[in-house]
Amino acid sequence: MDEKRLNALRHQVILAERERLTIDGVLNVESFDDREISLETDLGGLIIQGEDLHIKELNLEKANLLVTGFIKSLEYTGESLSKRGKGLLERLFR
Question: How far is CA 34 from the centre of its chain?
Answer without folding.
Answer: 15
